[in-house]
Structures are given as structure tokens and as C-alpha cells.
Specification:
- The chain is α+β, with helices and mostly antiparallel strands.
- It has 27 helices and 22 strands.
- A hairpin with a 4-residue loop joins β2 and β3.
- The chain is elongated and about 140 Å long.
- The two termini are 60 Å apart.
- InterPro entries: Actin, ATPase_NBD.
- This is Actin-like ATPase domain-containing protein.
- Belongs to the actin family.
Length: 807
């Protein structure tokens, strides 16, 4: 499988060069007072003279489409943001507008826009933006701004823009710039007009702050039936950013909103799945499908100064490897020492329990119960349970350490110890010394005999188990295989649960970690009968560690003053002896061998190592892609980091070129699941936590708000128009059409659903506005003049087919 091509983040296309004041004064725009069209969006402002829309000569054939005659982009376009900060070098206040407002960190942190939620609310910022716009159009005058802009203004605005916001904008245009007349219109209706949508249809416009669904009847927007969806480019950018931050929590640099917006606007990087999204996501569990879906993006980075180079000599490299080997050997020796120490502690506890059991029957029941409680056990059952647990652990350790052959278990002539049973008063001093030596030898001999007897019994039981298992496999192979598979899955589940508990201990907010801290606090204050700290499994937790002094006050026992006191913390870190883990590992290996040998349905792909390999391959592909020619290496499912077993390879020294490539690789992200997930929020808003209906359901609701007779609904669903910069996802029109056909299967107009895209969702609103200005000519009856502003107020607006308010 070849690796997907690398995508580099690029900036948006630069704005065309602005006009000069000389060219403006000498041109026809100034002489004919051509209207200025301003499409003010939340993320981008497009402005230019209406004549700029004519891109073909007047001799063009009459068959040319209206869109081709108005296909030129606006003269200028830039993000409408302003940044004010003080330049310390020049000690002057600096005002940056547009792309310059994001040049450095300081200016970017102080950048502001005139809009909030798509509405213009900051008139001071809007004034700075308009100053910049008019200056780039070549309109400037040394006499000041009064009467400076002697052109009609046509300004787009969002749906149902409040009259107060519109009034503040009109006041700014009439009072500060002295414009002769102002017109307002809905941007999505202008975009539909640029694409010749027709008299009836449904316009779906998705911008930076929201998505609007506007029905159109008789070439006029019916705003009373329009709907708004709180999902747009800014929300999608934030959602994509959160997904990437969750996917790459340890990314070398901090992913920001501007990078997320660039990813959102990169062509064909994100898309909308045209059919079943859930089936598509489920199919990505296949490694090959996930590889083909991945798109790797290079995030810009800076090569650090003094970066690592291959400067180590051969002698230094050998010394480093030797130090690593010595460190690993010390770690293994320390691990073995700790294991033997714990084994000795358990054997000592077993000896104490045996001595405690010897007292039973030699004293009264009340005294025996008191002795039992003083040893840290509430009942005899607790003592037996602890004895069984310790005995199992000791046997398991002995079975690993003392590997003896069958000849070592053969009975031998028992040695004699004649002085052990003779009373001391009948012996001389030398015989008493010999008696003590014989007693120690007899105790060691008896212990060895017990171990041999236990091993013989264990081997007999194991032989009987193997024989019974063989008989079970011969008589009922299917039942045997099902039983072994269940046992195999149970062992894997136990290992997963044990690993999960260990991971929980690393989280200080988890219940397991909090319980461990409670145990630490309890051990620091409580202990058995004045002992510093009881060994695990023994000792009471109810006795007070603080004893009352002579004056009745509590007295500290000095826990923590000695280094030995802190060794207790190593015993309560939640990591029990690895004996159970090793037993499960041995059992898992044995089960795998038997299943592979005798169960034809159990293959290598079903083993734990194969499962881990597939999971790692999926994770690697999900996070960073799989390079070409990569082969998955065999996985050891029992790899640890205790210096004994590990899958990790030693670090290789890299040359300068390889190190730079590795640094670039660390600053790459791979999009696979996210490619279809972001656009799917249009149809499943709950994915991003938006409590609204999907886009297809809203369109259906809008269409059903009109009567069925007269074919109105059929004409509307056959003319659904997608526009807006946030509708650039590939297959979004196909997905919307398929979803609407599924929602309207039984209606007479369900089969007539047709969805079409805007030719240029970015600039079509500006083109439609320019076309409207040119076609109405000098008779601009829909415009609000300065006289109307003085007479009716700033919120007055003239009615026309593209009006953005319900009048």
C-alpha cells in the first residue's frame, strides 16, 4: 500500500492589487459614480466597483450565460480584523488591518473583528475596516472623509439582521463617509441570483457563523419560513481542532485555530460521504481501508538551533552501549533480589501462621481468639485464607527456582538424628551442642522432604489433569475446543483487567489511586501493636499508631525518621507480585499451543500476538500512516520494561538529513476518520454537541411549510441551491440529495429532488450583488438615500426582492 501524498498547509490566494488614487480619479468608476459592492462576511470582506464584474467584451454573443458576463472576482478581499498595539521601537500606536493583523503573536492576540455571531456590533472596528477598504479602492482625499465616498453603497448582511445593527452601519456610512445612498440585501439571495437559480427553490447557505435555509417563491426570499442552523465554518474549525488535540495530545507544537481553518479550506482534504456514514466509519477498522483513507498533512515547524547531529565517535558510542548493558544488568539483579526478599517474607509469614496454629487446642478458646486478633486476623477463616494465598505464591516461586529432575525426587536412605529425642540432663555439654546441630539438620531435612512430597503430589495431580484433558479432547473434540477457547479468552480478559488497574493507579483522580492514598495515610498512622509497619497481609489496621504520653496527649511514634519506614510505600503501589501474571502467561502459551495443534478453527491470526499486532498497526495508521514498504514485526505480547523482556529497539544515531526528516515526521498529522466526520455534523449535529435537527431534516421542514397543491413543493425540492464558503466539501450536494430522497420516499415530489452547487461559493454573493447593481442601472429605487435617512431614521430600509429583513 503506497503512502498518501503529503499535503502542505498553504495560505489563501492573495487579494488582487489595489487601485491607486490617480487611477481612480482618472477612471470611469469615479466619473460615473459606479456603486461600490461590499460583501461583508465574518471571515472575509469582498469589495469592488460594480463594473469590475464585467469580464467579456460588449460584442459577446447573446447566448453567453449571465454568470460568464459577471465572472470577475472582487477587487479586494481580506479578513475584516483590526489590531491596535504600540510599537515600542518607534513609540507609536500602530493600526493593522486585514492579513497584517496576524503577522506576529502580539498583534494576533489583540486582533478584533466588527462581527459577533455574524452581526456587526463593533462600529469602531467597522470604521477602521471601511477606511482600509476605501483606501485600497483608491478613494482618498486630503480634505478629510466628509463627502469623500461619493458612490452608492450596496452592502450584504445576514438574515434577519437587527434594525439596530443596520442603523449603526447606516449612520456610519451617511455621517462619516457622506455616501449618497445605501442598499442592503441577503448574501445568499444575491448568490442565487448570480447562478440564475430561478423563481422557486431552497437556498442553503453556510458561512462562518451559521447555516441558513431560505425558501424562495417568485424570485423573492420568504424569510418567515426560513430556518437557521447554529453550525458554520468557525464551529467546524473548532470541532476539527478538538479532534486533532485529542488525537495528538503530545504534539510537538500547539495546534491553533488558524491551522484548523486552513485544513478545513484545503481542497479535497475533508469531504462528505455520499451514502451511509456509519458503514463507512465501520469499514475503516480494516487496515487497508484505513491506509487508503489517510491524508498526511505537514504542519510548519522551525528547526531548532544546535539540533542533535551525529557527533558521537565510535568509542563514545561503545561506552554508551556498555553503560546501557550495565544499567540493565543492575536492574535485573535488583529485581531478582526484591523477588527473593519477598519470597523470604512470605515463608516467614507461613512459619508464623504454623506456630499460631500450633497454639490451637493448647489453650482456652478465649485466649486463642485473643492471640488470633493480636496477630492481625479477626477470624480463623481469615488466617486460613491468608495461609492459602501465601502457600500458593511460595509454591509458584519454588516451582520456578527449584527445577529438579525425577532422580532428585527418588527416596533416599533417611539420616539418623539419635540425640534429638534425648533429654538435655542426660547429655554432656558436647552432646548438647551436637544435639542442637542435629536438630537444625533434621529441620532442614524435614523441610526438603515436605518440598519433595509437595512436588510429587503436584506432578501426580498435573499428570491426572493432563490425562483427563486428553480423554476429554479425544471423546468430545468440539466441546474441548470450545472450553479451551473460553478459557483462553478468560485469561486474556484477566490480563487486560490487571493492566487496566495498573493504568488507573497512574491517574491520581481515579478511584484506585485515591484508595491507595487512603491506604498510605492509614499505614502512616496505624500499625499492629506498636510495630513500625506491618508486612502486607499481616497486622491489624485498627490499632492506633500514636500512643498516649504521660500527660495523656497523643505521642508521635516517629514514622518516617528511618529510611526503612518508607519501604512500605513500595509494597502498596498497587503492583502485586508478578507471580499471577507469570502464571497467566504460561497458561496462555500452553493454551495457544494446544489450540493451534488440535483445533483446526484456531489459526495464528486469532492468537494474542496477532491481535496486538493488528491493533498496533491500526493505531499506527490512524495516528501517522504507514510508510511504503513497512512490514509489521512479530509482537511479544508479554513485553515488559523491567530489563528482561522488551520489544523496543535501541536508538540509532541519525545523520543530519535523517534527523531533519525525523523532525518533519514528528510535525505531521494524519487525517482519516476526521475527513468525513467534520462534514457529517451537517446531518448529525449531535456528533459535535449541537442540539438541533440535521440539515436534511430542516430542509424537509421548510419545504413542508408550503402547500402541496400547485406543484410548489416539487419545484422547490427540484431547485435546492448550495452556497457559502463552508459548503466546499466534496459530495456534500450528493449527500444532501440522497438524504432528502430517503426522507421523502412516498411523496409525489420525493423523486424530483435535485441539489446543485454554486459556481464559486466564495465570491458568488459579491457577483450577484454587482449584477443586480448593473441591471437596475441608474434607477436605484430600492436604495435608502440621505434624505430618507434624515427623515425616517437610521433603521429605515427599502423593500426589494433581496431584502434581508421581514418588512
Amino acid at each position: 500500500m503506497t503512502q498518501s501524498p503529503l499535503v502542505h498547509l498553504t495560505e489563501s490566494a492573495p487579494s488582487p492589487l489595489p487601485a491607486t488614487p490617480e487611477g481612480y480619479l482618472a477612471g470611469a468608476d469615479y466619473r460615473d459614480r459606479v456603486p461600490i459592492v461590499i460583501d461583508h462576511g465574518s471571515s472575509e470582506l469582498r469589495a469592488g466597483f460594480a463594473t469590475a464584474a464585467v469580464s467579456v467584451s460588449s460584442s459577446s454573443s447573446s447566448s453567453s450565460s449571465a454568470y460568464s458576463r459577471y465572472s470577475s472576482p472582487p477587487s479586494i478581499h481580506f479578513p475584516p480584523i483590526v489590531s491596535k498595539y504600540r510599537d515600542r521601537r518607534r513609540n507609536a500606536q500602530v493600526l493593522l488591518v486585514g492579513p497584517q493583523a496576524s503577522l506576529d503573536t502580539e498583534s494576533r492576540s489583540k486582533a478584533r473583528g466588527p462581527t459577533e455571531g455574524g452581526l456587526i456590533v463593533a462600529q469602531d472596528v467597522l470604521e477602521n475596516v471601511l477606511d482600509f477598504t476605501f483606501s485600497k479602492l483608491g478613494i482618498s482625499s486630503p480634505e478629510g472623509r466628509e463627502g469623500n465616498v461619493d458612490h452608492p453603497i450596496v452592502l450584504s448582511e445576514p438574515m434577519c439582521n437587527p434594525g439596530y445593527c443596520r442603523g449603526l452601519t447606516s449612520e456610519l456610512l451617511f455621517e462619516a463617509y457622506g455616501v449618497p445612498e445605501v442598499s442592503y440585501g441577503l448574501d445568499s439571495l444575491f448568490a442565487a441570483y448570480a447562478n440564475d437559480i430561478g423563481p422557486e427553490g431552497v437556498i442553503v447557505s453556510s458561512g462562518t457563523s451559521s447555516t441558513t435555509i431560505v425558501p424562495m417563491i417568485g424570485g423573492r426570499g420568504i424569510l418567515g419560513n426560513a430556518k437557521r442552523m447554529n453550525w458554520g465554518g468557525s464551529q467546524a474549525s473548532d470541532y476539527l481542532l478538538r479532534l486533532l488535540q485529542l488525537k495528538y495530545p503530545a504534539f510537538p507544537v500547539r495546534l491553533n485555530a488558524s491551522q484548523s481553518s486552513s485544513l478545513l479550506e484545503t481542497p479535497s482534504l475533508l469531504y462528505s460521504h455520499p451514502q451511509d456514514y456509519h458503514s463507512h466509519i465501520a469499514s475503516l477498522s480494516d487496515l487497508r481501508k484505513l491506509q487508503s483513507e489517510g491524508q498526511t498533512v505537514q504542519i510548519p515547524f522551525v528547526v531548532p538551533e544546535g539540533s542533535k547531529r551525529n557527533q558521537l565517535s565510535e568509542e563514545e558510542r561503545l561506552k554508551r552501549e556498555e553503560r546501557k548493558k550495565e544499567a540493565g544488568k543492575r536492574l535485573r539483579d535488583m529485581t531478582e533480589k526484591n523477588r527473593l526478599q519477598k519470597l523470604g517474607e512470605k515463608e516467614e509469614q507461613l512459619r508464623r501462621i504454623a506456630e499460631l496454629k500450633d497454639w490451637k487446642g493448647k489453650e482456652r478458646k478465649a485466649e486463642w481468639q485473643k492471640r488470633l486478633e493480636s496477630a492481625g486476623y479477626d477470624t480463623e477463616q481469615d488466617m486460613e485464607k491468608e495461609e492459602k494465598k501465601l502457600s500458593t505464591a511460595v509454591k509458584r516461586s519454588r516451582r520456578r527456582d527449584q527445577v529438579e529432575d525425577d532422580t532428585a525426587l527418588e527416596p533416599e536412605a533417611p539420616p539418623t538424628f539419635p540425640l534429638v529425642e534425648v533429654p538435655d540432663h542426660e547429655l554432656t555439654e558436647e552432646q548438647i551442642k551436637e544435639k542442637r546441630r542435629q536438630r537444625l539438620m533434621k529441620a532442614g531435612y524435614d523441610a526438603r522432604m515436605r518440598v519433595k512430597a509437595e512436588k510429587l503430589e503436584e506432578r501426580r495431580i498435573e499428570a491426572e489433569r493432563i490425562q483427563a484433558d486428553e480423554a476429554r479432547r479425544t471423546n468430545d473434540p468440539e466441546g474441548w475446543a470450545a472450553e479451551k477457547r473460553k478459557e483462553y479468552e478468560d485469561v486474556i480478559e484477566r490480563m487486560k483487567e490487571r493492566k487496566r488497574k495498573k493504568e488507573l493507579l497512574s491517574d491520581r483522580k481515579s478511584l484506585a489511586a485515591q484508595q491507595r492514598m487512603k491506604n498510605i495515610a492509614s499505614l502512616a498512622s496505624d500499625g499492629p501493636g506498636g510495630d513500625r509497619a506491618s508486612p502486607p497481609g499481616g497486622g491489624s489496621r485498627n490499632a492506633k499508631r500514636k500512643r498516649a504520653g504521660a500527660n495523656g496527649a497523643e505521642k508521635d511514634d516517629g514514622f518516617g525518621q528511618n529510611d526503612e519506614d518508607w519501604a512500605i510505600y513500595r509494597d502498596i503501589q498497587g503492583a502485586e507480585d508478578s507471580d499471577e501474571e507469570e502464571e497467566d502467561e504460561d497458561l496462555l502459551v500452553d493454551l495457544e499451543e494446544n489450540l493451534l495443534k488440535f483445533d483446526a478453527g484456531f489459526t495464528r491470526d486469532m492468537t494474542l500476538a496477532a491481535r496486538i499486532a493488528r491493533k498496533r498497526a491500526l493505531t499506527r495508521t490512524f495516528l501517522g500512516g504507514t510508510p511504503e514498504g513497512y512490514e509489521e514485526k512479530p509482537v511479544n505480547p508479554f513485553s515488559t520494561k523491567n530489563g528482561q523482556k522488551t520489544d523496543e529497539q535501541p536508538e540509532e544515531e541519525l545523520d543530519e538529513e535523517a534527523e531533519l526528516a525525523q523532525l518533519a515526521k514528528q510535525h505531521q498529522i494524519t487525517l482519516n476518520v476526521e475527513r468525513a466526520r467534520v462534514a457529517e455534523v451537517f446531518f448529525q449535529p449531535s456528533l459535535a454537541g449541537v442540539d438541533q435537527a440535521g440539515l436534511d431534516e430542516i430542509v424537509e421542514m421548510v419545504v413542508k411549510g408550503f402547500p402541496e397543491d400547485g406543484g410548489v413543493r416539487e419545484r422547490m425540492v427540484s431547485n435546492i441551491f448550495l452556497t457559502g464558503r463552508h459548503t466546499l466539501y466534496p459530495n456534500l450536494d450528493t449527500r444532501l440529495q440522497n438524504s432528502l430522497v430517503a426522507l421523502l420516499p412516498t411523496t409525489p415530489y420525493g423523486s424530483a429532488v435535485r441539489v446543485r452547487r454554486a459556481n464559486d461559493p466564495r465570491f458568488d454573493a459579491w457577483r450577484g450583488t454587482a449584477r443586480w447593481c448593473l441591471e437596475r442601472g441608474q434607477e436605484r429605487k430600492e436604495a435608502s438615500t440621505r434624505e430618507m435617512y434624515d427623515e425616517y431614521g437610521a433603521e429605515y430600509i427599502k423593500d426589494h426582492p433581496f431584502v434581508s429583513a421581514m418588512i
